[in-house]
Amino acid sequence: MTDQDQGPEESFVHLTPKGPDDAADTQADLDREMAQISADYAGSGRTETQPRLDYAPYRSSILRHPTKDLHHADPETIELHAPAFGERDVHRLESDLTVQSGGEPIGERIKIRGRVLDGDGRPVRRQLVEIWQANAAGRYIHKRDQHPAPIDPNFTGVGRCLTGDDGSYEFVTIKPGPYPWKNHRNAWRPAHVHFSLFGTDFTQRMITQMYFPSDPLFALDPIFQSIVDPKARQRLVAAYDHDASEHEWLLGYTWDIVLSGSNRTWTEGDSNV
User: Fold this and answer.
1) Which of 63, 129, 192, 271 has its CA 20 to 30 A from that of 97?
2) Disordered: where is this region (predicted)?
3) How confident is the model at residue 239 (pLDDT cuts 50, 70, 90)?
4) Longest dimension (CA), the chain
5) Tell me, what DSSP letter sits at residue 73?
């Protein structure tokens, strides 16, 4: 029997069950919005070095960005309830994320090193630096990360160290993979490493992200593009460092973090991405 022979009751159209992302905007929709914002910024004559907290292509920022004025907090009161640490609490092996479990993690071994500086180029000494990241398959060890990529049983994705007297830090880890997220349909985050830094007390904590050079997802990512100034965006991108690479062992990257001044590194503020 052909389709033409079927009556109205017998004809049907095969329907694929729809998932939660089927009604979401496409990457092309986001590209148009980001291109328009970039064009408006380029013609404005302004300079913005920090991300826009209500950047519309980053959909959830519209719902959760701060809308009230900041309030001063008593640091002494916060310190009574905030975490405390000393130099004896941070072991040197915590900066090597490849030796924290019972076996070798899967993926490309890398070294990330740099310096933490203030706005005048002075080193920030004895600074607690923490990192966390996805594994080589783009998967976090987190109950909310359920996309179908493998979990590496030999990779936790977290590490920490203290900066030296010259403000230097160094981590050995696995290069993270990109991963999907729910901002729009077929949305992928560029590979990145989260950095957290503490000053002399808990109220000075800042969080930022480091990216890898020449990532094809940069232009498609609304979190990266929420920093509308191109020069400011590039401060989040590490540089390949051949001197930091080790023969037949790992590739090296250098990334300095500037805490103040006009060239300071972008920080996530109250966001959690």
Assistant:
1) 271
2) 1-33
3) very high
4) 84
5) -
Q: Which helix (H) or strand (E) holds 31?
A: helix 27-42
Phi, psi (degrees; rounded to nearest 5) at 223: -70, -50
pTM of the complete model: 0.83
Length of the chain: 273
Q: Give the mean pLDDT of the chain.
A: 86
Q: Residue 7 to residues 1, 12, 15: CA-CA distances in angstroms?
A: 11, 10, 19
CA angle 261, 233, 169 (to 5 degrees): 65
Residue 6 reports pLDDT greater than 70:
no
Per-residue tokens: 221: 């990512």
Catalytic residues: 140, 179, 189, 192, 194
Residue 146's CB is within 10 A of a number of other CB atoms, namely 8
CB atoms within 10 A of CB 128: 19
- Residue 109: in which H helix or E strand, if any? strand 109-117
CB 137 within 8 A of CB 150: yes
Question: 69 CB contacts (<8 Å, ≥6 apart)?
Answer: none
CB atoms within 10 A of CB 120: 8
Q: Up-side HSE of residue 273: CA atoms within 13 Å toward CB?
A: 28
Measured between alpha carbons, how far is 124 from 160 in angstroms, rounded to an integer? 16
> 52, 62, 58: which is closest to 233 by C-alpha?
52
Q: What pLDDT is stored for residue 81 in this prediction? A: 60
Q: Which two tokens stand for residue 272?
A: 């959690």
Cα gap 118→123, rounded to integer Å = 7
Q: 240: which strand partners?
A: 253
Dist. CA 86–CA 67, nearest whole Å: 36
